[in-house]
Amino acid sequence: MMTSTAIRIAELVPAVPPVPVAEVVEATSHWWAGFILWFPLISLVLCGLCAAFRVRSKLPAWITIGSLACSFVLTILLGNAEDVPERILLFEWISMEWLGGSFVANFALYIDSLTILWMSFVTGLGTLIALYASEYMEPDVGKGYTRFFSGVSIFLFAMGCLVMGDNLLMLYLGWEGVGFASYWLIGYYYRRPEAVAAAKKAFIVNRIGDLGLALAVYLIWATFGTVQYNELMTIIQSGDFSEVYEGWSVKAIPYLLMLAAFGKSAQLPLYVWLPDAMEGPTPVSALIHAATMVTAGIYLIARMYPFFLLEPASLHLVAWVGGLTALLAATIGMAQYDIKRIFAYSTVSQLGFMFLGLGVLTTYGAAYHVFTHAFFKAVLFLTAGAVMHGFAGQLDLRKLSGLRRMKGWRIVAWTMFVGCICLAGFPFTSGYFSKDAILAEAFVTQGPGFQVLGWLAIFTAFLTAYYTFRVWCRVCAGPVHYEPGDELHDDDHHDDHHDDHHDDHHGEHGFHPHAPRFAINFVLVVISVGALLAAVPYFMPNEVEGIKGGWVADMVHGSSAASGIPGHPDHPGSLSDSAHGDGHAHHGTILGMDPHSAMYYISGVVGGVGLLLAFWLHLWRRQDADRLRSWLLSRAWIRWLPVAMENKWYVDEVYHALVRAPLWLLGHVFHAFDRYIVDGLLVDGTSRLPRLLGRWFQPLQNGLLQSYAVTMAGGAVLIVLMMVLMMQFFQGGAVQ
Amino acid sequence: MTEKLIFVIPEVILLAGVVAVAILGLVRSASLRSKVPWVAMLFITAAGVSIPFVFTDARIAESTLLLPGLGRPMGLVSCVVALCLVLMTVGRIDRRYERAIAAGRMPFDPLRSNRGEYYVFFLLSLAGLMLTCTASDLIWLFLALELTSLPTYVMVAMSRGSKRAQEAAMKYFYLGAMSAAMFLYGFALLYGATGTLELSAMRDVLAAQAADGGIGILAVVGMMLALLGIGFKLAAAPMHLYAGDVYEGAAVHVTAVLGFVPKAAGAVAFMLLLSTIGWFDGTPLPLPILIMLWVMAVLTMTLGNIGALLQRSVKRMFAYSSIAHSGYILVGIIAGPGLGFNAVVLYLFVYGLASTGAFAVLASLQRADREIEAVEDLAGLRQKHPGISAAMAITSGSLLGFPPLLGFWGKLALFVAGVASGHVVLVIIAGVNSAISAWYYLRLVGLPLMSEPTERSETIDRFDAPWARIAAIGLAASMVVLPIFLAGIQDETAVERPAVENNAVSMQDSSVQDEAAGS
């Protein structure tokens, strides 16, 4: 199958491709870039003041929206002004120097096009989703409203540090900051035990990944002596690190970074926190757990791409973990009934695609998919949120139907449709182009089993199209029918809000779903238009010669991830390329065709088939779906499959048995130890100890002046005598 | 001579403040009398502001002082901490007497009023500390050290009406006098061995001796006695015994002063004296002195921490923990000029703020107009006083050296200096000691925040005047905020500033060779 000229990652070692190095611009022309970070911080402070003065209006929302919008505008201005990577010093933070070493981490921004790409959708979507939340969180005005928006502000500040930081310590600060914000916001409904449990789960699972990041930062500093990107990239660029390159630490760094990325971006084996994180308010799910924070792992690997190229096997692992996570999450997503959970698993699955892209040497594909996914997944979550808001928390797709025929719900139904076709990769939508950029490269790049991985990914794409439209056909199409959820929290008449108060007398009959109003509808329309327009950058002419893929490729080109753009002169594949002097001959093939053009047809067909299957089973002949289900469940040999999928492959249960239960046991052992040995023996022992010690020290610490004086003078004399004797003994009276 | 006069301008300002405060404290008008602490703060601020103008880079470069770079950072650090120390006393001194006057139960009697006196003694002590930094000879050093200590004896005595304060003051005074005798004897031996009182000249003589076969036993013993005697100011073992009784006996605002001012003066004197006998162009300290410092450091840290573990009284616990901090400071002093001294000054700043904060927390609480005593009194404090309990937690965390807080960076700088100068074992011992100290510091974090209030702690109320509370919360906030400006603080507290190029280079060399010698 493979031609002899296929790209081998292994061949490129140790020729590490050059990466752009930031010019050190000391906060002159673009000093105002710091305000991209400061605006969310200002908003946080103002929200805090609102809380202190018990503001009972929507003021915190408008403060947050306003400052995030300012950040967004500044990001766009910065994107226009920036042409070379540069460094903007905000203030000096940590600089410690000693002989033979130093640790310098300033509060500075590292601005290159990758930063701008990320910040543009982070701040842009942040603003819009905050606007959405201003209406969505209405029932909580005066209660948790301020808390919610300060959480969003903290998140944006931390995400800004993570993406724009000039060094790994700032990245770490942001990394922990977004983790904290995520914990804060998942546990927003802190009266609900599930929300608290989910918040803790997210935080604890992320600890594992964060440990990897901490170790990676330490190893990078220990190996290269710096944590600043520009210096690291200079060292890598110079290629003058052959001694350290041989060391185990250089090989370990990418795996540790990977662990961090898999934790934050919910990949195998650490993905389990993300589906549970849907306990948070829906705008949070859309912003943090779909569009922005979970892509931090992809950003980390893209930013640190040269380190991964030093250890090619790590990229193979990234590809396989990404591909398998995508498949696993898609199969689980097929069998769930909770709309938000389906979208959550779909997020895990799509993040898997992005990691697959990074693994098969297309940072461009990964970044483009991050960009498009941010829009369409945000739309999907926001529509789910609108449904949840209007139907009293109802999210079961069996209990909702025919939304598009209901008054006031058309915008929700059709924006969800837009999100769905993008996610399903329907031809000529944004998701179609970005997904193809990854899938095709899986067949182009040669690696262990990448062909198999490519077919698995295509199969996953088929499943994606199916489960996406399963949701839409069930919820938005078909006859009108609905049951309210159990959170009849607010009918716009009540002024006494009780979060957990369930009015039984409202029942099903008196229930009127309240359709979303202006803010939600406006945001849905804007973001879904954005999701469609996200296809446009693909067709923009490239300013940089020799690469394809439009605007996003240009953006990636200006950064440390540049060598992951197919066609880039420094792309690892180009080494063999130049040897053969032909731009396309080296490609792997798919069914004997060029992967790039073949993928347009394959993925189009696959997506179409999945979509038709969903329409057949869930819209045109819904009874067939039930019949298929009962057929599957009645056959012993196939029965396990739907059951396992519905139960999420029992991963949580396995973790419970293998990790949580032993830890729980260990915890109790420690507790018993603490209680009986430490408290019982040691503490009671130490309470006896003072008396024991007292007998020794009593002559010394008896409060008597004379004995203090004697002890002091005696001690001094003793020391001096000892030293004098020692001097006499060793040196005969003189020192040195 | 003019140099000396210029360098004491900040102290002159403080002395002017002494006069102003002394007079103002005796004024009949109660509202004017209540302005006394603010006037004291005004003069401290003025002294602090004058420091950058007095210690200009050019003057420091030309100075013949032994450690010319010490005056500026230590002066700034002293003034900043002193401002906090004064702030927490506002409304405390003479409060019962003033209340009685306001209620008309007593007439105003200048002989009984000691509000003015308290600030007079405080300003004098502060001036002593700042004079220590610019000491050029042994006489000056002795006088400056005694100017630092003498007022504190009186402050302890008059701080509370109770007999305990007077007992504490007596102990403090007699033991202080004994230690002064000890280091004065050491000074005499040093003079005998070198024939000079000038510190710079002494350094030259001793350097010549060292190059010429070795420093004589007279100088080494003199130095040892001097260091042991001054160890009293630092509360370093074996001269630490007084600390528990005195800290506990004095009123809390005086304890806070004892925790910083004499300690800082002692550390400065250590740096000055040791610079005369070692670190000449890269030589290490004479071995006996080095060993003695090691023993002192290890004993001080360990005894301090173990002592603190066993205490029930909060003030006694802080007394022992401040002994332990002296041990950490000794690590920085052993590390020597350059990194070590910079770290010592930084640590004095960090520790001064945190310990003042912790004492301010204690000062902002009361039970029936009396200070709180037992650690258990803090249990469940968060329910009634969330701000104060948060301040307690943060300042304790900072004293422990909990990572993002300011205390961590101070400790880190000390330990980095220790490792860089080759004293890895000492740093490990200090690290273990830090871990031990977690036991009691974390208790101070946990008790107010996590325990349930007990019957006893229910009766705790906050102090009438808000200033101690404001100081506590402000200092706790600074523990969180200041690390952001760490680089700037390190710059300001550096003993060796870039302008002193030659000096800095030779110091650098010396620590290189220290490292070689240490390893």
Q: Can you put this structure into words, describing what you see?
A:
The complex is a heterodimer of chains A (736) and B (519). Chain A is mainly α and 736 residues long. Among the domains of chain A are: 52 residues, no CATH class; 38 residues. Chain A is 65% helix and 5% strand. Chain A has a 3-stranded mixed β-sheet with strand order 2-3-4. Chain A has a two-stranded parallel ribbon with strand order 1-6. Chain A has a two-stranded antiparallel ribbon with strand order 5-7. In chain A, helix 12 packs antiparallel against helix 17 and helix 17 packs across helix 22. Chain A is globular and about 105 Å long. The termini of chain A are far apart. The relative contact order of chain A is 0.09. Chain B is mainly α and 519 residues long. Chain B has 3 domains: 134 residues; 127 residues, no CATH class; 240 residues, no CATH class. Chain B contains 24 helices and 2 strands. Chain B has a two-stranded antiparallel ribbon. Chains A and B meet through strand 3, helix 27 and helix 28 of A and helix 10, helix 12, helix 13, helix 15 and helix 19 of B.
Brief descriptors of the model:
heterodimer; A: 736 residues; mainly alpha; three-stranded mixed beta sheet; 65% helix; 5% strand; disordered N terminus; B: 519 residues; 3 domains; two-stranded antiparallel sheet; 24 helices; 2 strands; 1% strand
The gist of it:
The complex is a heterodimer of chains A (736) and B (519). Chain A has 736 residues and is mainly alpha-helical.
Topology:
The complex is a heterodimer of chains A (736) and B (519).
Chain A (H helix, E strand, L loop, with lengths): L6 E2 H4 L10 E2 L10 H18 L6 H23 L4 E13 L2 E11 L1 H24 L8 H20 L3 H19 L6 H32 L4 H10 L3 H4 L2 H17 L8 H4 L5 H10 L4 H8 L1 H5 L2 H23 L4 H21 L3 H28 L9 E2 L8 H15 L5 H15 E2 L3 H26 L5 E2 L35 H16 L16 H8 L16 H7 L14 H26 L1 H13 L1 H11 L4 H47 L7 H27 L5
Parallel strand pairs in A: 1-6, 2-3
Antiparallel strand pairs in A: 3-4, 5-7
Helix pairs in contact in A: 2-3, 2-5, 3-4, 3-5, 4-5, 4-12, 4-17, 4-21, 4-22, 5-6, 6-7, 6-12, 7-10, 10-13, 12-17, 15-16, 15-20, 16-17, 16-19, 16-20, 17-18, 17-19, 17-21, 17-22, 18-20, 18-21, 19-20, 19-24, 20-24, 24-25, 25-26
Chain B lengths: L1 H6 L1 H16 L5 H4 L2 H19 L2 H6 L8 H17 L7 H8 L12 H19 L4 H22 L3 H32 L4 H13 L5 H18 L7 H8 L2 H26 L9 H23 L4 H22 L3 H25 L1 E2 L19 H15 L5 H15 L3 H27 L4 H4 L2 E2 L4 H15 L4 H7 L8 H18 L1
Antiparallel strand pairs in B: 1-2
